[in-house]
Description:
Layout lengths: L23 H32 L15
Amino acid sequence: MMSNPHAPGADSPPPTITMPRLDDDTVVQILEFLHRIMDLFEDRYGDQIRRFHEDLGGPGDINDLDDPPF
């Protein structure tokens, strides 16, 4: 069995990603792109994601994860 190099107590720290400086317009364009990708992903796989969470006994709607239970 292979060990997880990012597990607590691993010998080396996880790799870091250096983010470049970007102008405001570029940052907003990238953010909108990422939101669109997430929307497409949820449209395609949302039923599977809900089933997974329901099987774990959690909320069925992935948007309910931040909502209080009452």
